[in-house]
Design a protein that fits this description.
Length: 387
């Protein structure tokens, strides 16, 4: 599995009232101070309230970019002050992040990214260069498709562990046992990408730094395509949720989020960085999709649109990712303007409010035609022609 956005928070059940809308009057951005009791442990958070439920539950954004869904029963006390919300500076953010990591981590800064690592400087530099290439491509691609992107409000950061063992030990707090099967992930809660030095997958333990020649050697390994895809996939999630293309904790269908990240991830192993272009045919998922077509049942598209169950079930996950990528590829290539408008509507939804399957499907058809059977026929015909 490529891995994925950290598991979403379930709907609170009660209707939510949106308190903050980006761009409205500044007094609503006052700082809120909240005292909590979480599983017997007291915590104090300072940030701005993004959503408040009718029962008093909150979605709080803290200055480090973390989003905290807080049930009412955990809140001990809350009060506002007259200060305006201010994100941490890059230096403040980096200092705070290092304090949460095990000893021995260093920092490699690029123009847009902070890479915290305890592996070799060469590997950290390679990841940073790959991220910057993706950043430029992402911010060039979407405006041409009609999307209005904003610069990230918070520093973009990734944590790179030296070994899989150390990564799993750290990631277990967020992922639980899933950390054993996931090579890297973007967290909706922390806004961080976490991964490990993937050269270890080939059992290539280099003494000292990993030079460009050694990185090239890694890219020549049989599993290199999936390794590069994982790095780019999770970084795409991070960019989508920090640029305004998507909004964290909204009911964005998994086929959109995951399919879009797969659309961007396709490696180019002939390139020294391992990745170059947006939207190339993803051979790995194309092969999986064509295998799936042999057993695909009528109504598969309706199920994909209606809920995310297929992405959570190990038995159907590979097929869901393949069909999610294929649907994104088809829509972006054939109805790009409508696709961008659809993304905008999804990003404007109220966080933590979940849609039922019928509403999801109706929302989709509003942009891509009222007849799902005709659309499915066009979709399958198009994908059978992709080489």
């Amino acid at each position: 599995m490529l891995c994925s956005i950290k598991t979403r928070t379930a709907c609170w059940g009660a209707p939510l009232l949106l308190l903050l809308v980006f761009g409205i009057s500044l007094p609503l951005f006052a700082v809120e101070q909240v005292s909590l009791n979480q599983a017997g442990k007291k915590r104090f958070l300072t940030g701005k309230v993004m959503v408040e439920a009718e029962d008093g539950g909150l979605l709080l954004l803290t200055p480090d970019g973390k989003l905290w869904p807080i049930p009412k029963e955990e809140i001990l006390e809350r009060r506002s002050d007259d200060k305006l919300f201010r994100p941490l500076t890059k230096n403040e953010f980096t200092k705070q992040l290092l304090e949460t990591l095990p000893a021995g981590f260093k920092v490699f800064q690029t123009r847009h990214y902070t890479i915290c690592y305890n592996t070799s400087p060469g590997y950290a530099q390679w990841v940073g260069a790959l991220y910057e290439r993706l950043y430029s491509a992402f911010y060039s691609y979407w405006p041409r498709k009609g999307a209005e992107l904003r610069e990230p409000e918070f520093p973009l950061a990734a944590i790179v562990f030296d070994t899989r063992e150390n990564y799993e030990l750290y990631a277990r707090n967020e992922l639980g046992d899933s950390s054993k099967s996931i090579m890297g992930y973007y967290s909706l809660h922390t806004n961080l990408v976490t991964m490990y030095d993937l050269t270890g997958l080939a059992e290539m333990r280099f003494a000292g730094d990993r030079t460009a020649a050694r990185i090239s050697q890694v890219l020549s390994q049989p599993n290199a395509e999936r390794n590069v895809a994982t790095i780019v996939h999770e970084a795409t999630h991070q960019l989508a949720f920090n640029s305004g293309l998507q909004q964290r904790f909204t009911d964005t269908p998994f086929w959109v989020s995951e399919g879009l990240a797969v659309f961007f991830e396709t490696p180019d192993l002939d390139n020294s960085k391992g990745w170059r272009n947006v939207g190339a045919v993803n051979r790995y998922n194309l092969i999986n999709f064509r295998k799936y077509l042999k057993t695909r049942q009528p109504g598969s598209l309706a199920l994909l649109l209606g809920d995310d169950k297929r992405f959570r079930d190990p038995a159907s996950m590979a097929n869901a990712y393949a069909e999610g990528w294929a649907l994104n590829y088809f829509l972006i290539r054939t109805q790009g303007e409508q696709y961008t408008k659809y993304l905008k509507v999804l990003a404007e939804q109220t966080p933590l409010v979940m849609q039922d399957p019928a509403t999801r499907q109706e929302q989709f058809l509003k942009f891509f035609g009222g007849n799902l059977e005709e659309l499915e026929s066009d979709f399958l015909k198009y994908m059978r022609s992709v080489q």
